[in-house]
Fold this protein.
Amino acid sequence: MTDMVSPPIPPQRSRGWYKRNEIAVTPWLFLLPGILFFAVYVIIPIFQSFWISFHEWDGLGEKVWVGTGNYERLLGGDRKFEVSFWNNIKWLFLYLLAIPAGLFIALLLNQTVRGIRLYKSMFFFPFVLSQVVVGLVFSWFYLPREGLLNAILGVVGAGPVNILGDPTLATYGIIAAGLWPQTAYCMILYLTGLNAVDPEQIEAARLDGAKGWKMLWYVVLPQLRPATFIAFVVTIIGALRSFDLISVMTNGGPFGSTRVLSFYMFEESLSEFGFRMGYGAAIAVVLFFIMLFFIAYFLYSMYRDEKGAR
Amino acid sequence: MFPTPIEKTSRTWQLTYQALLPVALAIWLLPLIAVATFSIKPDADFTNGNYWGLPSSFEFFTNYGKVFFESDMPRYMLNSVLITVPTVIGAVALSCMTGFALGVYKFNGNLWIFFMFIAGNFVPFQILMVPVRDLSVDLGLYDTKLGLVLFHVAFQTGFCTLFMRNFIRALPYALIEAARVEGISEWRIFFFVVMPLMKPALAALAVLIFTFIWNDYFWAVVLTQGPDAQPVTAGITSFNSQYRAAYHLMSAGSIVAALPPVAMFFLMQKHFIAGLTLGAVK
């Protein structure tokens, strides 16, 4: 792309200050409302949360300064926090399965037969549904007596399982529900990516005798890198943001075994368990730092691309 | 093309593939098919234990009629519309401006402001929760639709800016330069040169944001309570406690709640996918 600075405009008679500085001022005028909104609702609250996390606060009365007290309590053996943290780690890793699963379905559907377009959109369908609906649907699917899953298991002779009622299984059950729409999303990313794969390279590789796995690994996947990157970004963010499904499917239970940080934070600050805003904010700050690690990586990759593009 | 085009494979494999497609789809959508069947079953089927068999009678109109005329669903739906539509307009309008500023002009801090929007968009919601709720209470916006709209507009501006800026970046810059040489003022360039070229991006963003906001649950729970302001995602959960074991009504309600974004997706599929995959293909 060409240089962004426009050629100097010859000065005319009696031009106002705005006219003379138009190029310099206009971007700021255009940015002002957006930045204002974003600052008030996003940027400033981040710092406020940091501030609140050093206090004990019920959301109404005076904030009482406790320094790092909340963090000491949090990291000093809060069982609920530990469970939430490890569940977040499970989410993070298992959610990534959406990427290969999405690639698999994309490869399956990347054909030109009659009606394939409809198939592609039907496979994408789960992503359009609200997580609340997905959560409801899956909790019925898992019902111990009436659920379809147990009906199927019954056919193959496996005993009934109460997935959402079992503390060791519940989190996996919820993650499986989350993988459903997420896989659909990754599938669309890969389908679009496959469209852009260079057919000449494929042909050339075929002539060299590459096919199947080898072709996928050495020829196709490298060309799908941008799609993989986006899939990675959205999946990580989705995993760390998981809240809706947990809230709808188990409400953190059984025995708090399905809590994740975002849910625990909500529970501490805004639920029948009390309004411990300071403690909640401290949990949110921890989650923020986990996310920041990934955000920094994403921004760094984008920065590299920007520099490379110039 | 990868994998090998199906036309070049053996006849048997072609037939197998075409036969397997509907089977795979049915398995993939199994939970959804179950819910759709639930929603047309009579109540008696559930008490008799006929969960997965065919409906003993076709109760489409009874069940959906109940949802529409005897529950709070229509109110929740209306709330969702009144929250989603202004948000889409607001977020798209703001981000057209920010995207234009960041995509067309070169100035100090351009990239940093851009990154601020992206980073803010990736932030976990929870870090905003307490202060945003507090702010809404202070402004008297707690439990109002306006309160949700303002927050959503602000938050979505992050994502939309990313989208718009990249889109504008890909437009031919020579057009803008030519307009400047003609002496056209900057805001006119925005309205008459850039905006007309942004139509596909506007459509893509609008459907995408519509779906995101319609499906939002977290902020609905944090910033509203009760049927006066709550959107349908939050409404369906109170519906759930009201009709706990009435699966037929719950399923009908869920399907109704899910319909607008689904309709949006099927009507605007091309734009929707273009929006989702922005940046995935260079």
